[in-house]
Amino acid sequence: MATQLLLGNEALAQGAIDAGLSAAYAYPGTPSTEITEHILRSAEARSGEIRCRWAVNEKTALEAALGASYAGLRAMASMKHVGLNVAADPFVNAAIAGAHGGLLVNVADDPSMHSSQNEQDSRLYADLALVPCLEPSDQQEAYAVPAYAFELSERHRVPVLIRLTTRLAHSRATVEVGARNPSNRLSVPEDPERFILLPAIARRSYERLVARQPDFVRDSEESPFNHLSQHGDRSLGIVACGIAHNYLLEVTDGAPSHPILKVGQYPLPERMVRWLVEHCDRILVLEDGYPFVEAKLSGLPPRSAPAIHGRLSGDVPRTGELTPDLVAAALGRGALDRRAASSVPAPRPPALCPGCPHADTCKALHEALASQTSARVFSDIGCYTLAALPPLAIIDTCVEMGASITMAHGASEAGLRPAVALIGDSTFAHSGMTGLLDCVNAGAQITVIIVDNLTVAMTGGQRSAAENRLASICRGLGVEDAHIRVIEPHPRNHAKNVAVLDEEIRHPGPSVIIAQRECIQTARRAARRAPSGGPR
Amino acid sequence: MKRDIILAGVGGQGLLAVAAVLGEAVRSLGLRLKQAEVHGMAQRGGAVQSHVRFSDRPIYSDLVREGTADLVLALEPMEALRYIAYLRPDGVLVSDTRPVRNIPDYPDLARILAELAAISPHRLVDAALLAEKAGSAQATNLVVLGAASPFLELPEAALVGGIRAVFAGKPDAVLAANLRGFELGAEWSRAVA
After folding, report:
1. What is the CATH number of the domain that holds A415?
2. Rounded to whole angstroms, how far apart are CA atoms A164 and A166?
3. Residue A334 CB contacts under 8 Å (≥ 6 apart), including other chains
4. Kind and range of the H or E run holding A296
5. DSSP state for residue A462 in the 8-state scheme
6. Residue B88: its chain A contacts at CB < 8 A?
7. Residue A365 CB partners (closer than 8 Å, separation 6+)
8. Domain contains B104
9. Which distant-in-sequence residues (6+ apart) come within 8 Å of A163 by Cβ?
10. B 66-95: CB under 8 A from A
11. Are A149 and A15 in contact (CB under 8 A)?
12. B43, B63, B115 member nearest A342 (Cβ)
């Protein structure tokens, strides 16, 4: 055993490596990115023993992992919570087709939306797909979970979802790590027809998945990640899920005075829950994210005794990240003696870096649209979303990956013009290409600006999937050559770029402007690596 | 022993490097550590913070509770003031005094510094001055760490080892400037006492 200092994400990744992982696919997204970066840095990935790749999006990542699982290997796909929306189709259907080699879907949720547009709870997806879900409470458990989950996945032949939340994903701790176990050998399923989800086969497979649910509950009863302590004052029983268990121990100095059900594996361990409900006067549910367990325990009126407390009851705020201070308040412990917060500090939101090419594109766009009061700029997910804030304040929408082009399409056809889509190179590869084909087929009057900084910048500079192929992709999708324009966003080109934007915004069909200049951050890092200068 | 620390600063100032140095130092001593970091969007010039906890006993929460931090270590004065509710009544405040004015409505600096100076004990350091002396304008984060070092309850050798570990692979001049910045900060802090 050796000790390493690992983020929750890195502990999960190292646990998977040591559990005989063979294939890992992912699309970067905060707070999940470091899972895959840790694997990419590993000796096993560098030697090719583990196949680890950034995929074009979460759907292709999960499908590639499913293919590796079909081939008998231990495989996983990693993503942020909203990425699972993109991968929902393979996720729900892989639950029915099943896994062969162990298949993990690692999802990092973001309560409080530190870097996201919602705080959806991935435990509901596991519930929807009828598969087991593991939720480690600390970094050491995050290391232990993959080996356990691969075994679970292979035993029941289903994918297993591992859920982290931002705080554990991005918190570092000392972790005891072991040695790497051998990986699986290539093999095909003995019952390969279950992967053909024709209705007649899918019905049988679905029945089998449903029939397995009691087994999943039984596993939860015996799981090393679930624990029921029956000791203490039964006026209150506490359910503490995932990281909430740490906060509970924190505010009770490691010695809670009530019976505690620690939950780290779903579906819920019914026998343990029943004991708590039958022996305690009131139940408090502590969970980071949605009131998922609380809702299950509450049921519909008439409510069974005992009363269930949590986010739905108002004992814990309905939205936002759980904290030890909120847990203390829910337990009726007052705030600690502390200084009043100062009213002086002003908010300091993130901003585009000084010298960012996106800022130059947005300034040119601002001028090109200056006389067009009806113009709308439909934007997307990436650094350029920060152009919503002053002084640029140029974008009108940002909803989800790829929605810039498709919303601009619909708005333009509805009569709202000029309709401009502003999308990054990686987001275009992720979810923009299909929408652009819609626009070409419809002859939609939209202008797509692909802000191409040659990297996935917001998540730390991963390789962009369509690097240097954006123009040929647009051409292949049917955009007319004359209306695929490449500009270099730089203050020295401002007037030229405004003219190009103006021309293409006037074009009565789909046009694409590729605003290409390398991200200032990756350019700086590259310069540091190669002090002599020269091309990247 | 147990230390609960809030690190605060602006994205791009090198706050994660300070957290990493502390982490390496703590690990080298065989202590337990939990260190909650901010990654992603907020790193782009926004307010960033990190909770660092170390102890010779188990640590449960990744987050420090309000009113319990032994130390707020800030690389920017307004960011220091943002987190004073985390300090325990006799907790220490260490901050750089130079503002990062990347927002249009930056408050009155004199007022910020006055509120910080009302906290006792405190160390308000002009880190840029000492970083310049150390040979790198970028070493302000290590100067502030040095200024905080008398309050960390960690041997200085462990912190120096942490700096060496975190800046391993960087050019020798960068490592030397960071080590020197840390020392100048520590000397200044001891002299003020």
Report:
1. 3.40.50.970
2. 7
3. none
4. helix A292-298
5. B
6. 336-338
7. A377, A394, A420, A422, A449, A501
8. no
9. A107, A108, A109, A122, A123, A126, A133, A134, A135, A242
10. 66-68, 78-79, 81-82, 84-89
11. no
12. B115
Per-residue model confidence (pLDDT) at position A535: 39
For A254, the closest of B32, B44, B58 (CB atoms) is: B58
Answer yes or no: do A347 and B111 touch at CB < 8 A. no
| Tens digits of residue pLDDT in A427-437 | 999 999 999 99
Name the residue facing B40 among A115, A345, A386 (closest C-beta): A115
Strand partners, A171: B36
Pairwise CA distance, residues A396 & A409, whole Å: 14
* Mean residue pLDDT across chain A: 95
Phi, psi dihedrals of residue B93, rounded to the nearest 5°: -115, 125
Segment A274-291 mean pLDDT: 96
> What does the pLDDT average to over A111-126?
96
Sheet hosting strand A227-229, strand order edge to edge: A227-229, A260-263, A236-241, A282-286, A307-309
Do A383 and A507 sit in the same domain of this protein?
Answer: yes
Cβ neighbours, 10 Å, residue B66: 23
Number of domains in chain B: 1
CATH number at residue A268: 3.40.50
For chain B, report the end-to-end CA distance as a whole number of angstroms. 23
Boundary of a domain, candidates A211, A243, A260? A211
Q: Which tokens in the block code for residue B99?
A: 């503002």
Q: By residue range, what is the domain housing residue A53?
A: 2-211
- Answer positive or negative: Cα dihedral of A86, A87, A90, A91: negative
State the Cα–Cα distance between residues A91 and A261, nearest whole angstrom: 29
Q: Where are the beta strands (DSSP E) in chain B?
A: 2-10, 32-36, 47-55, 69-74, 87-96, 122-125
Range of the domain at B37: 2-99+109-192
pLDDT at A532: 46
The shortest C-alpha distance from B187 to chain A (Å) reads 29
Among A165, A183, A211, identify where a domain stops: A211
* Distance separating alpha carbons of residues B91 and B67, to the nearest angstrom: 9
Both A372 and A515 in one domain: the answer is yes
Question: How many CB contacts within 8 angstroms connect chain A with chain B?
Answer: 160
**DSSP β-bridge partners for residue A76:** A24, A104
Q: What CATH number is given to the structural domain containing B29?
A: 3.40.920.10
For B31, the token pair is: 């202590």
Pairing of the two strands A171-177 and A2-7? antiparallel
- In a domain? residue A339: no
Scored b (16 or more CB within 10 A) or e, A194-207 reads bbebeeeeeeebee
- Spatial separation of the C-alpha atoms in residues B159 and B21, rounded to whole Å: 7
Please indicate if any CB of chain A lies within 8 Å of the CB of B183.
no
Does B20 reside within a domain? Answer: yes
If one counts the domains in chain A, the total is 3
Question: Percent of chain A having pLDDT more than 90?
Answer: 91
Q: ipTM, 2 decimals? A: 0.93
Task: Judge whether B28 is closer than 8 Å to chain A, CB to CB.
Answer: no
Using a 10 angstrom Cβ sphere, with 0-12 exposed, 13-18 middle and 19 or more buried, the burial of residue A399 is: middle
d(CA A406, CA A444): 10
